[in-house]
Amino acid sequence: MSETSPKLRAELEGVPTYKPGKPAAAGGPVAYKLSSNENPYPPLPGVMEKVTAAASAFNRYPDMACTGLMNELAERFGVPVSHLATGTGSVGVAQQLIQATAGPGDEVIYAWRSFEAYPIITRISGATSVQVPLTPDDVHDLDAMAAAITERTRLIFVCNPNNPTGTVVRRAELERFLDRVPADVLVVLDEAYREFIRDPEVPDGVELYRDRPNVCVLRTFSKAYGLAGLRVGFAIAHEPVAAALRKTAVPFGVSHIAQEAAIASLRAEDELIGRVGTLVGERARVADALRAQGWTVPETQANFVWLRLGERSVAFAEACERAGVVVRPFAGEGVRVTIGETEANDIFLKATAEFPQEA
Asked: What is the CA radius of gyration of the chain?
């Protein structure tokens, strides 16, 4: 038998595998998972009934056009259906965006650290990542990102709020940045955590997109809506971009169950607002408690907090796990901790109180 292996694309050499948040150990001391920015609440009212009914038809392919969901989104956001595209979570749509815009020889700009899928999906496409360091306050350096644009730039991600720091860029600076970006470069406003924002100076990307043909907005049902396991996200963009996204979508990628759950979730917005409000209140409580303990915590507008622990990040995560919560360390940089149930947050705060803040 020949030992020669099939030829694979050279771009895959060295591509890291996406690292999900560590789950809570079954039967072990860990009681809570605060590592994946999941919503701790059960599905919104009406969702389980729709999912249960939809499950009886999973021997059939789903509606590939997501017609019902697209119509619901068009009405909810006041946009044409032709300006919408769906995918397997916002990360799936992000990958479709790169497939539609960038290939070998092209560049994709994003802040770093930011969402860890960006370098993976960029490299898979054969494009080159241009990573622009965050400011010392863990915020996007939009001036540096604008300066990094070249004739090879095809797409720019602005993660707002930024994952994993929770920091935001505000209206004036974002609009100034958008004014500097060439019209033929696509700017993707990744707003996976939009529902948790309470800063009135943070703009709604949908309003920015309306008169800017090179702006695309990403949203997801995974976070605030609590549908992480069903994988449904969407983009709002002008028709050429949205049409390209529909071309690059995996056929039948969004299941019938996911479509029905998303529609039901959109129709339960009153309950959603209440749940998100509770999490925002817990976010404030946790951040205030951390600062009272002496920690430096960036202002977060997402459903998580960020501790820049550098080389002590893994040790801190291990201490949290021993205490009973799993958090998400980024080795050598920091630790992201999801705002979860009150009991989980209390365990986390007890762990931070006992962990030495200096090496």
From this structure: 21
